[in-house]
Specification:
4-stranded antiparallel sheet, 40% helix
Amino acid sequence: MTGPKHQIPFDQFTRLRTRTRGFLPHWEVEGATYFVTYRLHDSLPREVIARLKQEYRILSRRAFAISLDRELDEGRGAAHLRDSRMAAAVAENLHFHRTRYELEAWCVMPNHVHVVMTPFSGENLEDILHSWKSYTAHQAKKILGVRRLWAREYYDHIIRSDRELHDTIAYVRRNPAKAGLVNWPWVG
């Protein structure tokens, strides 16, 4: 008998790969579905980043994620993804690479991106994120003339149940409205 589609068997966690890029740990498990948030480099002021680092040490991952999303939804920074050419480049790039992962949901916000996805066997999250950010950074240089687009760090969370998957997809799709963006087209 098999469990829910997105429930990772305990023995899978014995093959858990852990690494860090900055202050957040990143866990990778073959076959896992991830909720990923990556952001523009100027989307959070230094003092907010310092506070978030403190919160990460004392809060649960869930509480930290809520705090991070609340800060990002403030729309700080140049918000280059408000430019429809940049938002389209990010959205098209997410779909272009679908030979590497199953895309469950996505949302391009003015200063960050949310994605729910499952890497295919042999693919890893770090390489997928690198390809998304690299391509769109080159597009930003062409379209907007900016040299730096993305923050180095990104947030990821392994989805552990079908219920969590459902709730996460709903969150991603509702995020623009929650942030006050009316008729925001960059959601899928």
